[in-house]
Design a protein that fits this description.
The chain is an alpha/beta fold. The protein is built from 11 helices and 11 strands. A hairpin with a 3-residue loop joins strand 2 (about 40-50) and strand 3 (about 50-60). Helix 4 crosses helix 5 (about 135-150), helix 8 crosses helix 11 (about 405-425) and helix 9 packs antiparallel against helix 10 (about 345-360).
Length: about 425
């Protein structure tokens, strides 16, 4: 089991404990109002992705504590640190002292943990007028860069954050992915899965925090159109990914143990057989097709004493607005295209995590959901023991009377998710 020491530092009342509680303790933003200030150092062991444990040191930000950090406890606090997260309060009434403390922390880090990665969060950005946020954030980043360079720190990342929007998830997603040892291999296999599923995008979320771990986006040219209604699948073994051979584009590939789905008709028959009860997974409850409003309704299996939780059309619409924006064509738009919201995944993290918490309060367990409109279909489902996956497929020309992302194509996507689980368990081990 890998343990990583993470320092969380910053001025008192800057919001350190609030963000930690939202990300790792399932607090809602409004619930953080009852948290009391941190005194001295609080130690928290947070499990992430099963076998990765974050040894999180939440350090109180009062002046007296900083004197202790820099003198008596200097080596204890700053040695063997894997990652430093320093939080600035954008509305601090004494920014000069904040930067003095920051410079002292950087010096101690260079002395005791020179290889640690450094992240700086400019927090409470929601308190700044929206039209001024970008300008003020850039000015603060400039001052932070000057402080870092002044003590010889060349590499750091800086984010503007707020507990009230997706920026907090964006920053912490970037932070935690730096602690995943095999992230490059995971991203490579996720890209293969995206290609095989003929999806626009595939996103992997950590199960407990719903932070974005990795994502892949399809890159295709104009010649890579839909395969005439033929469904793609997944072939894997324990050692390497097997790729399509020329001339086999008309075959749907599935895991070796399941055999071949030669065409859409055969897959439809399989859907009517073993997958007819629960296409999302063997453990999940059915996820119904869209009704007259065009939205799908997620089902959550109720526990004893509790009913099934239902996702309202209003919540579903919010999710669809964040993921949407794709043109209804076979051309996959590059990731730099302006219509993609840069924070779309983090917005979904925020929305779905709050929905998961609502399910928990109703004594139900969140399993997955479908979201569909005229432009895309998004499948969110439990994936490995420690992750959820989201597969986004844009709406395309009707094939045999069916929209892409519905009917047989929906069944193929859900089957691919099911068959890929054991393959991805190799890179995201169980706890």
């Amino acid at each position: 089991m890998a343990k990583k020491k993470v320092l969380l530092m910053g001025k008192a009342h800057s919001g350190k404990t609030s963000m930690r509680s939202i990300i790792f303790a399932n607090y809602l933003a409004r619930d953080t109002m009852r948290l009391s200030p941190t005194l001295d150092v609080e130690h928290h062991h947070v499990r992430f992705l099963g076998d990765l444990v974050l040894n999180l040191w939440d350090c109180g930000g009062q002046d007296a504590f900083y004197e202790s950090y820099f003198e008596r406890d200097r080596e204890t606090i700053f040695r063997s640190v894997e990652l430093l997260i320093y939080v600035f309060d954008i509305e601090s009434d004494c920014p000069e002292k904040d930067f003095d403390h920051f410079a002292g922390v950087l010096e101690a880090m260079e002395e005791n943990s020179p290889d640690a990665r450094i992240f700086v969060l400019v927090h409470k950005m929601d308190l700044v007028a929206e039209e001024e946020r970008e300008l003020i954030l850039e000015d603060r980043k400039r001052l932070i860069e000057e402080s870092c360079l002044g003590v010889g720190v060349q590499h750091f990342q800086c984010f503007g954050t707020s507990i009230w929007d997706e920026t907090l998830y964006k920053a912490w997603s970037e932070i935690v992915t730096n602690l995943i040892p095999n992230i490059g291999v995971l991203e490579s296999h996720l890209s293969d899965f995206c290609r095989i599923c003929d999806a626009d995008e595939v996103v992997l979320f950590e199960r407990a925090t719903f932070l974005v771990i990795s994502h892949a986006q399809a890159k295709r040219d104009n010649s890579d159109d839909a395969d005439g209604g033929v469904v793609k699948g997944l072939i894997t073994d324990d050692k390497e990914q097997q790729h399509h051979e020329e001339g086999n584009e008309d075959a749907a590939e599935v895991n070796g143990e399941a055999g071949w789905a030669e065409n859409a008709d055969e897959l439809a028959a399989e859907k009517q057989g073993e997958m007819s009860t629960s296409p999302h997974s063997q453990l999940s409850s059915p996820i119904h097709d869209a009704g007259d409003d065009g939205m799908a309704t997620p089902q959550t299996p109720g526990s004893p004493g509790g009913g099934n939780a239902t996702h309202t059309a209003g919540n579903t619409a919010v999710v669809s607005n964040q993921v949407g924006g794709k043109a209804s064509s076979n051309q996959i738009t590059p990731s730099s295209t302006p219509q993609f919201d840069a924070h779309r995944f983090e917005k979904i993290s925020n929305i779905v995590k709050q929905f998961k918490l609502s399910c928990g309060k109703a004594q139900s367990q969140f399993q997955g959901m479908d979201v569909r409109n005229s432009k895309f279909t998004a499948f969110i489902d439990a994936f490995t023991a420690n992750t959820y996956i989201m597969v986004i497929v844009s709406s395309k020309t009707q094939v045999n009377g069916q929209e892409w992302g519905t009917g047989v194509h929906k069944a193929a996507t859900l089957l691919n998710i099911q068959k890929a689980r054991s393959h991805f368990e190799q890179f995201i081990p169980r706890s």
